[in-house]
UniProtKB/TrEMBL annotation:
BP GO annotations: fatty acid beta-oxidation
Entry protein name: 3-hydroxybutyryl-CoA dehydrogenase
GO molecular function, one term: 3-hydroxybutyryl-CoA dehydrogenase activity
Pfam families associated with the record: 3HCDH, 3HCDH_N
Record flagged with keyword Oxidoreductase: yes
Site feature (Important for catalytic activity) residues: H137
Transmembrane segments: none
Source organism of this protein record: Muricomes intestini
InterPro entries named among the record's database cross-references: 3-OHacyl-CoA_DH, 3-OHacyl-CoA_DH_NAD-bd, 3HC_DH_C, 6-PGluconate_DH-like_C_sf, 6PGD_dom2, NAD(P)-bd_dom_sf
Annotated keywords: Oxidoreductase
Domain 3-hydroxyacyl-CoA dehydrogenase C-terminal: 183-278
Family, as annotated: Belongs to the 3-hydroxyacyl-CoA dehydrogenase family.
Pathway(s): Lipid metabolism; butanoate metabolism
Domain 3-hydroxyacyl-CoA dehydrogenase NAD binding: 2-178
Length: 279
């Protein structure tokens, strides 16, 4: 079976890499060509490091590259058995992408979204195949993180669910069933913790104190602020805002410091400045 991944950003390119590493032929599609160029450079750098470190051979690297192709044309989803959408977290954009994919894809093709909290049912409703749509939420960095959350939309049928479940297990992820509510499981618990850490910085705590406390006192691999810089402050704020708007509950109130940082362009590692400075 061939796989198409829509979006060549951090998540899309990582998901495409994950599928190729598991043996699938993957087409990574992004209408914004510079995103494709950036994805190619990043993966080449990553693989060069792995080869130098000895965790991947030159032959394995070449084999994986052979299975990965890129395109800027959405029509190239034709022939794919499954399409994984990983475009930015904006519902109108996602709906428009789903509409285009529905027209371009073969009738039997399943379309899944990597959304971290938007409504699967709403995206499905933009297609003529809502029973063949569901959510598969990967975590960053997708090739490393072992989990994928499976989210059924209101119309997802059993056949689609079992095919997608089998596929996600075949790319070596452990699956959990998550409810179709904002944040699913992981982000509903993780992101309010990151938000709380941002409140503590707003109240005057040093980021390194908050992070060291959680790393050494709770055994987290990264502190909550380090993690926020890692995934992107804009991405984390959007997820928190999604919880707030989705549950209509003030307990999910986004930290105003995050909003200020996003307005200032302090988005974390990707812009060189977040809670910490990066070279
Ligand atoms: N992309 C692909 N692979 C990567 C990578 C990346 N960005 N970063 C690291 N790796 C790979 C390396 O290639 C290496 O692989 P090999 O062992 O095959 O060589 C392996 O990961 C370990 O790398 P390092 O030794 O450099 O790094 P580390 O041991 O410090 O681990 C980490 C790095 C895995 C990211 C670890 O710090 C970690 O688990 N952090 C927490 C990540 C986390 O919580 N993610 C969830 C974010 S929330 C989210 O994603 C939800 C959302 O919707 C926003």
């Amino acid at each position: 079976m061939k796989v198409a991944v829509i979006g060549a950003g951090l998540m899309g390119s990582g998901i495409a890499q994950t599928c190729a590493q598991a043996g699938y032929e993957v087409k990574n599609i992004d209408v914004f060509e510079p995103a494709i160029e950036k994805a190619k450079v990043n993966i080449e750098k990553l693989f060069a490091k792995k080869v130098a470190k000895g965790s991947m051979t030159e032959a394995q690297k070449n084999e994986i590259f052979e299975r990965m192709t890129y395109s800027s044309n959405m029509e190239d989803v034709r022939g794919a058995g499954i399409i994984i959408e990983a475009v930015p977290e904006k519902i109108e954009l996602k709906k428009s992408v789903f509409k285009q994919l529905d027209k371009a894809a073969d009738p039997e093709t399943i379309i899944v979204s990597n959304t971290s909290g938007l409504s699967i049912s709403e995206m499905a409703a933009a297609t003529m195949r809502p029973h063949k749509v569901m959510g598969v939420h990967f975590f960053y960095p997708a090739p490393v993180m072992k989990l994928a959350e499976l989210i059924r939309g209101i119309a997802t049928d059993d056949d689609t669910y079992s095919k997608v479940r089998g596929f996600v297990i075949s790319i070596k992820k452990t699956v959990v069933d998550a409810p179709e509510y904002p944040g699913f499981i992981v982000n509903r618990i993780l992101v309010p913790m990151q938000n709380e850490a941002a409140f503590m910085v707003m109240e005057g705590c040093k980021p390194e104190d908050v992070d060291n406390a959680m790393k050494l006192g709770a055994n987290h691999p990264m502190g909550p602020l380090e993690l926020t810089d890692f995934v992107g402050i804009d991405v984390m704020l959007a997820t928190m805002t999604g919880l707030y708007n989705g549950f209509h509950d003030s307990k999910y109130r986004p930290c105003p410091l995050l909003e200020t940082m996003v307005k200032a362009g302090h988005l974390g590692r990707k812009t060189g400045q977040g809670f910490y400075k990066y070279d």
